[in-house]
Amino acid sequence: MTSVPTRARRWLVVAATAITLVTGAGVTPAAAAANPYERGPAPTLAALQASRGPYAVSTTSVSRLAAVGFGGGEIYYPTTTSDGTFGAIAISPGFTAYWSSIDWLGPRLASHGFVVIGIETLTTADQPGSRGDQLLAALDYLTQRSSVRTRIDATRLAVAGHSMGGGGSLEAASDRPSLQAAVPLAPWNTDKSWTELRVPTLIVGGESDSIAPVSSHSIPFYNTIPASAEKAYLELNNASHFFPQSVNTPTAVQAVSWLKRFVDNDTRYDQFICPGPGGLAISDYRSSCPLS
């Protein structure tokens, strides 16, 4: 056997130690370089179905007086400072509603490695166009003026919302194509055509929604979004318009998977998007598979 000189052995030990310190335990240099936005452990369905993800979460409030272009709200963010920056999501409630109606989404999404702002709207009667503008204003506040701005990667942003807030998330994605994802929940909008959309969009509808029936809202919205944008449609079996107002595991599983895939560019979540979920809770699922 050929021996390695002492000086060479020392160099190898130093190099190996340096690689370990830079990349972290269990992460190869190639994996770290392939996706610098990957956050958290490898996903499992059980982990996605749990009430919280792997990150501990803190909250901070935004007063109406401090907000510019929206009505204030609540920010949820991972407490760790060792994983670098995170993508961010702004979420709007629906017509006549307050953030408290869907506030379970804040800690649920943040615990999977996102900074989330759940907004209050300027008035509870604001229409989708206004709600879209407010979502974008909230993202600008998050990345430019908020107390957590240093925790955010301003190039990786997304929007979501319920009802008119969901319609607003479509408006925001149309107005700002640099967004990485949109997740409209039971979306309502008088505009039925979204051929201009370029943002990866997951629409979640309720089969028994009588306020924004999927036949005249969610499905036409989905059908008109170009497949090149990446899109998916999840329909919940026998769900009403108000399904986002209670903790809903199928919605959370798909929303987290969609956001991790397109905000974090994490292909480990492809398995939950294509071919997609099934079971008694799902009445329909469509997607622009295969993912690129």
TrEMBL record:
Keywords: Hydrolase, Signal. One of its GO terms (molecular function) is carboxylic ester hydrolase activity. It comes from the Bacteria. Residues 1-33 form the signal peptide. Residues 32-290 form the PET hydrolase/cutinase-like domain. Belongs to the AB hydrolase superfamily. PANTHER family: DIENELACTONE HYDROLASE DOMAIN-CONTAINING PROTEIN-RELATED, POLYKETIDE TRANSFERASE AF380. This is Predicted dienelactone hydrolase. It comes from Actinoplanes philippinensis.
